[in-house]
Design a protein that fits this description.
about 500 residues, mainly alpha, three-stranded antiparallel beta sheet, 22 helices, about 65% helix, about 5% strand, elongated
Amino acid sequence: MSLPQREQEGDFTSQVDELIPRVESLAVTNVQEALSALLALEKQTRSASDQPSTTRILLAIVKLLSERKDWKELKEQVQALSKKHGQLRESTKKMVGAVMELLEAGKVEEGEREGVTVCLRDVTEGKIFLELERARLTRRLSGMLEAKGEVAEASRIIQEIAIETFGAVDRREKTSFILEQMRFLKLRGEWEKLEIIARKINARWLAGEGNEDLKLKYHYLLILSSLLKKSYLPLARHYLSIFRTSRPPTVTEPNESTMTEEQFEILKLSALKHALYFVTLAPYDNEQKDLLERLAREEKVVERGEWINFAKCFTTPELMRWPGMLSVYGSMLSRSAVFPAPALPQLPGGEGATLGGEEGGEDGTDYDFVGLAEVDTDELKKGRWEDLHLRVIEHNIRVISTYYGRIRLPRLAQLLSLPPTDTEKHLSRLVIDGMVSAKIDRPAGIVVFKKPGGGRTEETLNVWKGGIEELLGKIEQVGHLIGREYAVKAAMGKEVSA
């Protein structure tokens, strides 16, 4: 907790009014003498807690030294003045603000900018009333270090700031600062830390109007992180959030370019397509099923025949043949950044896959989202084709388990277009994961499917219902017996009294 400011004990307005013009004339011939005169009066105004006069003197010192490009002396005076005993907070704040304005206006020479910034950061350290300035100076310094190639040092400096605790910084600037911290962690490849810091940002607030630029940056960084971890369901959610952005982002940074309505619509359509592809790659569970069904009902998906038909392959309880899947949708998938053509798998027999679908897609446009290329590797690309094949196998096993109570293993392998050993491996994994309930009789070569989930739950509820009915019946019977005992006792009492 900071100490309260002392009450003003004197007014030096007239002395300051007289000194400043005289100092400006004196500085033409003797800067040091002019500076000494200002410092002498500054001591008096500071001791008297004359905040307006002290502020004018500090600003005059900054102006005097900056006009003469004496950056070394400026840094020394700013450091010394900020440490003076009883220095007024508001005066220090305005002095730091004046030097920051010089930096922002480009009036500080390029070779001196970093030194002046470091000096101001030292001045703001530990001062709550300068936390906003410290945050901005830290961001500026990290940008300078990044431009010099010192990414590690730039990241270290910006990560030191716990911006979420700075009460003087508004919410938008806090979010922008956190996104900058995430960006540096991305440059360093520290993805786990990036996801931890991302939790400081409220995704619901980002969805509000006017935050579109921050929202896109946020999801872009998390898309890269989720891609490397092969977290397909979060990837789908991030892309869907981008698709549901209502309007193009407003440019707030000098190095950003404006996005037209047409470009924004292409970006949204790209995000929707990627959301559809990644949700099909995600392992099956209730959340994945719900998101896939919601995407299949999206108007933009329904309008595009290939997209909705691809989604229906995973929402309809019908078998899919992997070779047929590639022949029908291979061309559409291979034109996207999610399933690039060079990583296209080989069909059984060692022959390359025959790609179906019209060249260029129904709308004749490739809506790839450029963010994937930044961290994507050949291994990840190939892995997504393998994961798609795996999801087709899992879908087919779930479909078979609903139609068959018993099936021979060779027949199951034939339906899945897999060797018997691979069929058994995939079936066992689904049983372990709880997706299906089955037993394999290896000597007989028979797979026995049990009703998943619903049957066992219904049976358990019936047992509970029967037990509760029995308990209520016994309670009622005991109640009758107790009532009968009371009646017998009452009758016996009457006979004795008679």
